[in-house]
Structure formats: C-alpha cells, structure tokens
Write a structure and sequence with these properties.
mainly alpha; elongated
Length: 77
C-alpha cells in the first residue's frame, strides 16, 4: 500500500504539472518535491497529535521506501 501510494503520488504530480503547461524539467522537479514531502508531513502530524508511537509506524515504513523510489526515479530520469 505504501509503495502504490508513493508511486501514484509521483505520477499524479508529474502528469498534473504537464497538464498545467510546465516544461519537462519543471514537471519532474514538482514530482520529486511534492512526493518527497509526504513522509515529513506524516511524522509532523503524528508528533503534533502526540501519537508518535502509534502513527509513527507509517512514517518509519514510508521513509525508506520514499528514498528508494525517489533515487530510482532520479536514475531513470
């Protein structure tokens, strides 16, 4: 589930950027920037709610997968 969420996030941001007329380099930048913020946002929400021990698991799983998929996508592009 985490992997599909991450990959769909990159794809939606990339194609959404292209839809709004951004050039290739800008669309790729938006895809990376927005896609890489998800784990940080999740950890911030978990910390703010005081439920880091419960909600922190999603962040612990998502963080490494985000780094692997982001690095892979950067290598392909």
């Amino acid at each position: 589930m985490v992997l599909s969420h991450n990959l769909s996030g990159y794809a939606l941001r990339y194609f959404g950027s292209k839809l709004f007329g951004l050039d290739e380099k800008s669309a790729r930048t938006v895809a990376f920037e927005v896609g890489m913020q998800n784990a940080g946002l999740a950890s911030g929400i978990a910390f703010a709610m005081g439920r880091l021990e419960i909600m922190g698991l999603a962040t612990a799983v998502f963080g490494p997968i985000m780094n692997i998929t982001g690095s892979s996508l950067a290598t392909i592009w």
